[in-house]
Amino acid sequence: MSDNRQLLAEYVRDVWDQGDLAALERYLSPSFERHRSPLLPPLNRTEQIERLRGIRAAFPDVTIVVQDVVAEADRVAFRSVLRGTHTGEFMGISPTGVAVTVGLLDLLRMEDGKFAEQWGGPDMHDMLGQLGATYSL
């Protein structure tokens, strides 16, 4: 397994499966940028940690199962499935008790053994639909 693949596996285990958000200090570079949309400024390291803290609070049993990984040079792309039960507020939606299952597609750029940039994420349209949210695109 390449170093970058191993780093991804350890990140998923520590942060997502074990809920160790303090471990993010080991995985995210000080200059980390999380790109959510071409129209929004990227999140910095602190903002990304808070984002993941919010997801963990809304879905305390959240896990990710990585299904595919492609790694080349300083890039790692992965496809995974997120599962969790909505027991805390999420994006203004009160807890529903609904167990969600959504796909994720992510691309990471690695630098000095840490995540420097990230693009992609969960299928929010699907997640919000499973939570019963009504909205228009």
Rg over CA atoms: 15 Å
Strand coverage percent: 35-45%
Principal-axis shape: globular
Percentage of residues in helical conformation: 25-40%
How much is the average pLDDT? 94
- Our count of domains comes out at 1
Name the strands of the widest sheet in spatial order: 2-1-6-5-4-3
Question: For the record, what CATH class applies?
Answer: Alpha Beta
Q: How many beta-strand elements?
A: 6
Q: Treating each run of at least 4 consecutive H or I residues as one helix, how many helices?
A: 4
Largest sheet: 6 strands, mixed
Write the CATH architecture name: Roll
Strand/helix succession: HHEEHEEEEH
CATH topology: Nuclear Transport Factor 2, Chain: A
Poorly predicted segments: none
Secondary-structure-derived class: alpha+beta
Distance between the termini: 40 Å
